[in-house]
From TrEMBL, chain B:
It comes from the Bacteria. This is ABC transporter ATP-binding protein. It comes from Deinococcus radiopugnans ATCC 19172. InterPro entries: AAA+_ATPase, ABC_AA/LPS_Transport, ABC_transporter-like_ATP-bd, BCA_ABC_TP_C, P-loop_NTPase. GO terms for cellular component: plasma membrane.
From TrEMBL, chain C:
Residues 503-545 are annotated as: Disordered. GO terms for cellular component: plasma membrane. The lineage of its organism: Bacteria, Thermotogati, Deinococcota, Deinococci, Deinococcales. This is Branched-chain amino acid ABC transporter permease. The chain crosses the membrane at residues 21-38, 58-77, 82-99, 111-130, 135-153, 173-192, 204-227, 247-270, 332-353, 384-403, 424-451. Keywords: Cell membrane, Membrane, Transmembrane, Transmembrane helix. It is found in: Cell membrane.
UniProtKB/TrEMBL annotation, chain D:
Belongs to the ABC transporter superfamily. PROSITE patterns: ABC_TRANSPORTER_1 (PS00211), ABC_TRANSPORTER_2 (PS50893). Residues 21-254 form the ABC transporter domain. This is ABC transporter ATP-binding protein. Coiled coil: none annotated.
Automatic annotation (TrEMBL), chain E:
This is Branched-chain amino acid ABC transporter permease. Belongs to the binding-protein-dependent transport system permease family. LivHM subfamily. It comes from Deinococcus radiopugnans ATCC 19172. InterPro entries: ABC_transp_permease, BCAA_transport_permease. The lineage of its organism: Bacteria, Thermotogati, Deinococcota, Deinococci, Deinococcales. Keywords: Amino-acid transport, Cell inner membrane, Cell membrane, Membrane, Transmembrane, Transmembrane helix, Transport.
Length: 364, 283, 545, 255, 337
């Protein structure tokens, strides 16, 4: 029996370990599911998780280590675009494919690396989608745009701002903040400028606190965000009373809405004793794409373990069905050909699907 | 050896008329307290002068101003005609004044030798680049510093402590080491703050000889603070007495010793005999 | 009864080290073989169960660590010089690159270790020798990294484009004005400085010095701006960065840039003592990171700069090629060799400075600033030299780091990095060069090999639940190791003799840990100066008014 | 030539029976420095015992060992019948000792008054503390003048006064004085010796006195020990020691 | 924008900064206390105070449905948090710092960082065990997001606040009151009591303190107990104000708080408070700088936005320390030369 490994790179310790662990766990679940199938094909399937601590340098070092382990045929990761960019570059020379369950920044695939793919939408579709929602559904004329000063949050917010400006919407404020606890000065500014809507590019654990304080200050302005808000913790942080009028764009439908996701969520809960969240599902999907791709490549290779390049090429060419987030196939640079963006609305602490729209990457 | 390597010039006994240090109307105020009040002092070249006075009279503060550690409130300090007020302590040292401290301040992680080498630092010619490139100048400098340390250790009689950590030395020897370190800067004038504190009469005698040699052999002018009257009276050529920051008397030892104001404020009655036992009952 | 003579210190008998030449060579051979085998999948397969053991990630991490220990032992053990040389050069120049041929991550790891070693050596000057606690050291690393990255990436083209589109009122006239301003102010600053050397500074002269400084700054800004505007025409030509041949020039420039930033940061803050300095450097480190995050035009902000070029060295590449390296490994191999040379130079500079007038001055101000000053050591200048020297090491390594990563973003330069470097210094042994290098190696190995290795090895062990998988507890494990090492060897792994001398933990001197108060007997514990200014502000040394 | 400030006590304290403080073959080390090489010493209740010796003889080390600042490596150390070897200073101090350390060791950031109050840490009676503070002020009027000045800004001699006054706050049974006259002007040197004698007479305080000013120390002491490079060279009645030729030569500066 | 809008805005920004400042101040005191006696920047303090927040949270959660008076719940939470954080701090000192007495000062500093990392993961693990990551405060019934200006619970203050146009929440008022009380108590203990004097003596010279009969180890433990308890209080207040804490959320405010302590003059209690307040206000003012920049037409100011508020405190620190090298209220070391 030949051992085949896949690796994950995600933050397992540090402030974003919650999401990073979700990814790892989602992948683990898929690996568990596929183990039997691999066994039948004569392979012993294993997962090796790596911790990148959300730090580019650590992530790159992990990537180089992974590249050195010839049994690893594919990588699922990362959480942060800022890590994905250098990490995928480090993997590229050894033709090691990387499938991202979370990275939305344009640059991730814009560099045209043969090994970098993602199953999530890009920020240049997520951004305009958010912007359109703000204009069309929320009918906002004046928007306050915030970001978290990370590669992801700032990039996304910039896309939103660009789209809004193009449509003549007033930007009453645009700024970034790394603050995690105290948003009083921003809240005061919002109170002063009275926007019709607020867009915040960032991650739920920061934005949640912000919304909590915003609502606490008696401001009910709608808050819109991107996939970073896709976490069941968000309404908990905001608190029942304030968890209203919050929207976000994301690429996975709410888990409750999908029958497939139901079993996934139950399995997840059973295996890891924590509820599954968006990125758990993304990780799971990405892993399924990966594993399916490896199996396909192995089949094409006459049942023998495929080379990394074969896996890389197979995955880029393949089409994968039956995933939680629908069908996956990649364009020439590794963007998901047709992704669905969902707009979720949080009302009374409950997330519910508001609208959905199909988006395409700029290249095909 | 000493004269040629470390200290330039031949040495003649003291008593030349020119003042090397001229302090004029020097004043230091701490908040409401005037620690030193318009003190004027001229120190002749190659002389040994003393500043004495009761505890808290302002002697150490006076030294601290001369060496640039405290900025004077008013007044002027001239070394060989050059104004020192406003210079940093290291510039004062470079100008030619070295000192020891009332509370010994040796470099605690260095050996005796290294302590002295630091004293020599400001006279060395080698630069950062020399050190990195190990130029000839660097080697010369290092040699000079080491040689200075050796000579100074010999001079004060501490050769056997060369490689011992300075702060492990006995108290009295630490004082001597401080003197050696100060001498390594090739000063024109050295200020000694209570050099005999912590020494027994026998050791004080040795110290006295050492101080004389510093002046005679090295040609360094000496200004010292001391409470040991035996030392002061036999060693000094000139004495200034401070009390409450003000100069209350000055002159030759026997003049000062017999000045009633000094006796009253400082010496006590029995001091006139040069000894400090006393007959009168405790107050 | 005789006249008392001072007690002679008891002579410590020198420990006679056994000659370990044979052991060293043996160790070298064994670890080299292990290293090469464990990175040769083909060979491992043929080894059967032994191969499986080697494949275990923890074992692998240990093999790498043991192999690197070669260098350490070659340094520490008493052995014939040929053996030391053989082991040192052999492992760094032959075995490691050889193993790196099949496992590029080894090269990456070694480069990372040496980068951190250089950082630790630089910080060691500042903290270990001069006793200035700097918690924002990574700022200089960032400066070096950005100095190269901005020019060697598409950023430079973007900047030129921006200035081409927004020239403002800038033109060749501005350049002329700027040049004149720069010249005049620089001249007058030099003049005033010379004056201050001869006479005490007055309020007026200090003020005009400051004024000239501002003039100089604006002059430089004007010149810079007009050059950018005038050069904006060639934006397209540098769309993917300047000619990589400038790499060598920038090696010097990054050193200078970091040193200048070091001086600029140092000037206002070096008058502060101890922890005032610590927190303020921490803050300024953050300031630099936040600036990098906000000055999007130059640094691309949080998006980061990529791709960053590296030096073109055709001859090296063909050499590497003929040695069997793959083209994608050339650049890393080149950087490996470069970093090896740079660290050798840095180490040399360190050792030479330490045993010089400047090194003594650093230790003197660490021990007692007032006494040092009274012995003629100029405080500010000495501290600034320490700061600038330390900074320049970080600067050059920052540049190499950027070239290696091909991507940098402000996230890589956060506070945690500064703290990590500091922990390397302390862990290895403050003030000891071999110590801090070892500290850097240990911490880097821990973070990049051993902890991930633990995570990997345990990931597929069924009885270890995911929640307590070591991969999730990197901080816990790292923290525990830090604490344990500090408790077991407070003087560091390879202590500096001076520090060790101060750390006399003898039972006779009442051990504080038990019951007493006495460790302050000799107040030598302080390795950086106390947190409080020594003199009342109104009594500041005359010259600093 | 050695004129004592005060005539010797009419009745010297008894030196038979059990001593208040007893050091037996004490060895103390600083790291590798063997500072005390078997010191044996006794002090009886009500005695003034002088300890003299050259630089680095081990006088300070002896006092530190007694007060518990250091642990002896070898030897026995009893105080009031209790073995106190290795007891930390804060415990021995609570047994009625008081130590004026070498180098004064004033708390620089506490005011003069606070320094005195901390000296009375083992006393809880506020009134008594105040009484003692006033007593200290009476000994050293300069301290009263500077009641609210920070200890660290006092002049060397002023700090020495403060250190002595601080040690007297608890009215100790055993007073360890390490060069109390160091840095004091002649007038105050006299005053200090007066105080020592007064304490000894009026409160029956036992005093272990280390002094470089050996003439005066021997004049007020009952007995004396001479230390040399960590060893006890001589002991006996203070007046006899003061007459000893070698002692005079070695420590008293006679030629 | 007219003045009638701008004035309350600016007042509110400042008041918000002051409230924030009180949080910083009380965290800062935990650092200052320990710094004072050991000259150690206790990096683990940030986790100690987060532990306090977690304990407070658990108390609130347990009492969620009880009919107990809200203030009583708060009091219980404070007491529990003080106890746990205080003891944790003492334990840390005992195990990690005490064996290092007399080592170079950076050694315990690194140890403190190690302890900080350990505690972060432990806290995260404990949170993870409950299947959650971010702890969210449920405020005791009675004072959720009530505004003083509109709510009757704080009528007397409310009237006053309304007239000056300030819009604080009841919990802010509670926060300030609790913080002030702790500060006053601490100030009394340190400056007026025998314990306080002994602690200060130990902080200046442990050996000599021993000669005064002071057991320095006990005093150091006492200091860690006090510092830890303050950490507990600040944790509860922090959680109450911001609503969310997780294992890592102590780090950033911890650094700012220590900066506040330095700014005020390390070791000085009123200094820490002053520093905290100043930094709170400055942080908030820098956060709204762009509003003024835009209003007044200074394009450059307009780019100074919330992303700079993190470094505002440091820049202020540099500026102030240049002119006052020992902090605003710091005593200079008065070592006599
Ligand atoms: N920084 C300061 N702040 C306030 N007062 C001070 C300061 N420095 C010194 N003093 C006071 O100034 C006076 C002079 O002190 P100085 O140290 O000069 O005395 P001195 O003559 O050297 O005394 P001694 O012989 O005791 O050493 C003293 O009363 C002292 O308390
Ligand atoms: N803190 C210390 N560390 C190391 N060695 C010390 C220390 N203090 C004293 N010594 C050494 O111990 C020996 C005894 O010193 P001690 O201070 O007891 O002598 P002393 O009789 O008090 O001398 P002095 O008259 O100079 O005060 C000396 O050799 C000295 O070098
Ligand atoms: C956690 C996420 C929101 C990640 C984000 N999409 C990124 O690319 O970095
Ligand atoms: Mg004095
Ligand atoms: Mg002594």
């Amino acid at each position: 029996q030949t051992t085949i490994k896949i690796a994950t790179i995600s933050p397992l310790s540090g402030g974003q370990s919650n999401l990073g662990t979700q990814i790892r766990n989602g992948v683990q679940l898929a690996v568990n599911e596929y183990a039997a199938q691999f066994k039948k094909a004569g392979f012993n399937l294993q997962l090796v998780p790596y911790d990148d601590q959300a730090d580019p340098a650590t992530g790159t070092a992990a990537a180089r280590k992974i590249a050195a382990d010839n049994q690893i045929l594919a990588v699922v990761g990362t959480l942060n675009s800022g890590v994905a960019i250098p990490a995928s570059a480090a993997l590229a020379p050894s033709n090691l494919v990387m499938i991202s369950p979370a990275n939305t920044a344009n640059q991730v695939t814009d560099r045209g690396l043969a090994n970098m793919n993602r199953i999530v939408a890009r920020d240049d579709s997520q951004g305009p989608a958010g912007a359109n929602f703000i204009m069309n559904n929320l009918k906002a004329k004046k928007v306050y745009v915030l970001n978290d000063k990370t590669a992801y949050g700032e990039g996304l917010a910039a896309e939103v701002e660009k789209a809004l400006k193009a449509k003549g919407v007033t930007i009453s404020g645009s700024e970034g903040t790394e603050e995690k606890s105290d948003f009083s000065s921003i809240v005061a500014k919002i109170k002063l400028t009275k926007p019709d809507a607020i867009y915040f590019g960032g991650i739920y654990n920061q934005i949640g606190v912000f919304i909590k304080q915003l609502r606490g200050a008696g401001i009910d302005t709608p808050v819109v965000g991107g996939d970073g808000l896709d976490s069941s913790e968000l309404p908990v942080i905001i608190g029942k009373a304030g968890a209203n009028n919050v929207y976000y764009t994301t690429v996975a439908a709410p888990l409750e809405a999908l029958p497939a996701a139901k079993t996934f969520a139950a399995n997840f809960q059973k295996t890891f004793n924590t509820p599954a969240q968006g990125f758990g599902a993304f990780g799971y999907d990405a892993a399924k794409v990966t594993l399916q791709g490896i199996l396909d490549a192995a089949r094409a290779n006459g049942g023998k373990a495929p080379s990394r390049k074969q896996v890389m090429d197979t995955i880029r060419k393949g089409t994968y069905k039956g995933l939680l987030s629908g069908e996956v196939s990649f364009n020439s640079v590794g963007d998901r050909k047709a992704a669905t963006l969902y707009v979720i609305k949080i009302k009374d602490g409950k997330a519910a699907l508001e609208t959905s729209l199909s988006v395409k990457p700029p290249k095909n | 050896m000493i004269k040629t390597t470390v200290h330039p010039g031949p040495v003649t006994p003291a008593s030349s008329g020119n003042s090397i240090l001229e302090v004029d109307a020097l004043t230091k105020e701490f908040g409401g307290l005037t620690a030193v009040n318009a003190v004027t002092l001229h120190v002749p070249e190659r002389s040994i002068v003393s500043v004495i006075g009761p505890n808290g009279a302002g002697k150490t503060t006076f030294f601290n101003m001369i060496t640039g550690i405290y900025a004077p409130t008013r007044g002027s300090i001239k070394l060989a005609g050059r104004e020192l007020v406003g210079l940093r302590p290291d510039q004062v040292t470079e100008a030619g004044i070295a000192r020891t401290f009332q509370n010994i301040r040796l470099f605690s992680s260095m050996t005796s030798e290294e302590n002295i080498m630091v004293g020599r630092n400001s006279r060395l010619k080698s630069t950062f680049v020399d050190a990195v490139l190990r130029t000839r100048r660097f080697h010369e400098s290092e040699h000079e510093a080491r040689e200075a340390a050796r000579i100074m250790l010999d001079f004060v009689g501490l050769s056997q402590w060369r490689n011992e950590i300075a702060t492990n030395l006995p108290y009295g020897d630490q004082r001597k080491l401080e003197i050696a370190r100060a001498l390594a800067t090739t000063p024109k004038l050295i200020l000694l703050d209570e050099p005999a504190a912590g020494m027994n009469p026998r050791e004080t005698e040795d110290l006295k000889a050492l101080i004389r040699r510093i002046r005679d052999e090295l040609g360094v002018t000496i200004c010292l603070i001391e409470h040991d009257m035996r030392l002061v009276m036999t060693l000094s050529e000139y004495i200034t007495v401070l009390d409450y920051g003000t100069k209350i008397s000055e002159g030759l030892p026997h003049q000062v010793r017999n000045d009633p104001a000094v006796m009253e404020a400082y010496l006590g009655r029995g001091a006139a005999a040069g000894e400090y036992g006393k007959e009168e009952a405790p107050r | 009864m005789t006249v008392a003579t001072p007690a002679k210190p008891a002579v410590r008998r020198p420990v006679v080290k056994p000659d370990r030449t044979i052991l060293l060579v043996l160790f070298f051979v064994v670890t080299s073989v292990l290293l090469i085998i464990s990175h040769q999948p083909g060979m491992m397969k043929s080894l059967g169960p032994f191969g499986d053991v080697l494949r275990n990630k923890v074992v692998e991490a240990l093999v790498v660590s043991l192999f690197l220990a070669n260098v350490l032992f070659a340094y520490l053990w008493k052995a014939a010089n040929w053996a030391k040389l053989l082991v040192g050069i052999g492992s760094l120049l032959f075995v490691l690159p050889l193993a790196g041929q099949t496992d590029t991550s080894l090269l990456d790891l070694s480069i990372q270790i040496m980068i951190f070693a250089a950082l630790a050596l630089g910080l060691n000057i500042v903290v270990g020798l001069a006793g200035l606690l700097d918690l924002g050291y990574v700022a200089f690393f960032a400066v070096g990294a950005y100095t190269w990255s901005i020019f060697a990436s598409p950023r430079f083209g973007e900047v030129l484009k921006y200035y081409g589109e927004n020239p403002g009122a800038t033109g060749s006239g501005t350049l002329a004005i700027g040049l004149v301003l720069t010249g005049v102010t620089a001249g007058s600053m030099l003049y005033i400085r010379g004056l201050h050397g001869r006479m005490a500074p007055t309020r007026l002269s200090s003020l005009s010095f400051l004024l000239a400084g501002f003039g100089l700054l604006s002059g430089i800004i004007l010149v810079g701006r007009s050059i950018l505007v005038l050069a904006s025409g060639s934006a397209a030509a540098v769309a993917s960065g300047i000619n990589p041949g400038f790499f060598w020039l920038f090696l010097a420039l990054s050193i200078m840039a970091a040193a200048i930033v070091g001086v600029l940061i140092g000037l206002p803050v070096l008058r502060l003592k101890g922890d005032y300095l610590a927190i303020i450097t921490l803050g300024l480190g953050e300031v630099i990171r936040v600036l990098a995050n906000n000055l999007g035009l130059y640094t691309a902000g949080s998006q980061g700069i990529t791709p960053i070029g590296s030096a073109p060295v055709p001859w090296f590449n063909s050499l590497a090629g003929s040695l069997g390296f793959r083209p994608d490994q050339y650049s890393l191999l080149f950087l490996y060799v470069l970093v090896l040379i740079v660290i050798a130079v840095i180490l040399l500079v360190n050792v030479r400075l330490d045993k010089s007038r400047i090194g003594r001055a650093w230790v003197a101000i660490r021990d007692d600033e007032i006494a040092a000053q009274a012995m003629g050591v100029p405080l500010m200048q000495t501290k600034l030299i320490a700061f600038a020297t330390g900074a320049s090491f970080a600067g050059v390594m920052g540049m190499i780091f950027a070239a290696k990563q091909t991507f940098i973003s402000p996230e890589s330069f956060n506070l945690l990095q500064s703290i990590t470097v500091l922990s390397m210094v302390v862990l290895g042994g403050m003030g000891s060069f071999s110590g801090v290098i070892l500290g850097a190696a240990v911490v880097t190995l821990l973070n990049l090999r051993i902890l991930p290795g633990l995570g990997e090895a345990s990931a597929n062990v069924p009885w270890i639940p995911q929640e307590v998988n070591p991969a999730n507890f990197n901080r816990f494990i790292f923290g525990s190791i830090l604490v344990a090492m500090m408790l077991l060897r407070p003087e560091g792994l390879l202590p500096n003799k001076r520090v060790a001398r101060e750390l006399h933990h003898e039972d006779d001197q009442e051990d504080e840990s038990e019951d007493g108060n006495a460790s302050g007997l000799k107040q030598g514990g302080d390795v950086y100066s106390a947190g409080l200014a020594t003199i009342k502000e109104d009594d500041r040394p005359g010259g600093e008014r | 030539m050695t004129q004592s400030t005060v005539p010797p006590q009419p009745t010297a304290p008894s030196t038979t029976g059990s001593a208040m403080l007893e050091l037996n073959d004490i060895h103390s080390y600083y790291d590798h420095i063997h500072a005390l090489k078997g010191i044996t010493l006794k002090a009886y209740e009500g005695e003034i015992v002088a300890l003299i010796g050259g630089n680095g003889a081990g006088k300070t080390t002896t006092l530190r060992t007694v007060s518990g600042m250091m642990k002896p490596r070898v030897g026995t150390l009893t105080y009031l019948g209790q073995d106190i070897a290795g007891k930390p200073a804060h415990q021995t101090m609570q047994m009625g000792m008081s130590h004026v350390p070498e180098g004064r060791r004033i708390f620089p950031q506490l005011t003069v008054r606070e320094n005195l109050e901390v000296g009375a840490y083992t006393i809880t009676d506020r009134k008594l503390i105040e009484e003692r503070v006033q007593e200290g002020f009476a000994y050293f009027p300069r301290l009263k003048e500077r009641e609210n000045q920070l200890g660290g800004t006092m002049s060397g001699g002023e700090q020495q006064m403060l250190a002595i006054a601080r040690a007297l706050m608890v009215n100790p049974r055993l007073l360890l004085l390490d060069e109390p006259s160091m840095g004091l002007s002649p007038l105050f040197v006299e005053a200090i010796f007066d105080i020592i004698v007064k304490l000894n007479r009026e409160h029956n305080t036992t005093v272990l006195l280390v002094e470089q000013n050996a003439n005066m120390a021997l004049a007020i002491a009952h007995r004396a020990y001479v230390l040399q490079t960590g060893e006890m060279k001589l002991s006996g009645k203070a007046s006899d020691i003061a007459k000893d030729e070698t002692v005079r030569k070695a420590y008293l500066g006679d030629e | 924008m007219e003045l009638s809008v701008l004035l309350p805005f600016i007042v509110n920004v400042i008041v918000g900064g002051l409230v924030l400042g009180f949080v910083y101040a009380i965290i800062a005191l935990g650092y200052t206390m320990v710094y004072g006696v050991l000259q150690l920047i206790n990096f683990a303090h940030s986790e100690v105070f987060i532990t306090g927040a977690v304990v407070g949270f658990e108390i609130f959660r347990v009492l969620q449905d009880s009919a107990m008076n809200g203030y009583l719940k708060l009091l219980l939470a404070l007491l529990a948090a003080m106890t746990v954080s205080g003891l944790l701090n003492v334990l840390i000192e005992r195990l990690a710092y005490r064996p290092l007495r007399g080592a170079p000062r950076l050694v315990p500093l690194i140890t403190a960082i190690g302890v900080s990392l350990i505690l972060q993961d432990v806290l995260r693990f404990l949170e993870g065990l409950q299947g959650r990551f971010d702890l969210t405060y449920t405020l005791p019934t009675g004072f959720g997001n009530k505004f003083c200006a509109t709510d009757s619970t704080c009528a007397p203050v409310g009237n006053f606040l309304r007239t000056i146009g300030v819009d604080v929440q009841l919990k802010d008022v509670i926060l300030v009151v609790v913080a002030l009380v702790s500060l006053l108590v601490l100030n009394y203990v340190v400056n007026r009591t025998r314990l306080g004097k002994a602690i200060r003596a130990v902080s200046q010279d442990r050996v000599t303190a021993g000669l005064m009969g002071i057991d320095s180890n006990r005093m150091i433990s006492a200091t860690f107990l006090i510092g830890g308890s303050l950490g507990g209080v600040s944790g509860v207040l922090f959680g109450m104000k911001f609503g969310t804490v997780n294992a890592y959320s102590g780090f950033d405010p911890g650094i700012i708080a220590f900066t506040a302590a330095v700014l005020g003059g390390i070791g000085s209690i009123p200094g820490a408070v002053l520093g905290g307040l100043l930094l709170g206000v400055i942080q908030n003012l820098i956060g709204v700088m762009n509003i003024f920049g835009n209003l007044l037409g200074f394009a450059n100011l307009g780019t100074i936005d919330a992303s700079y508020s993190k470094i505002g405190p440091f820049i202020v620190l540099v500026l102030i320390l240049i002119f006052k090298p020992t902090g605003l209220l710091g005593k200079s070391n008065v070592e006599k030369v």
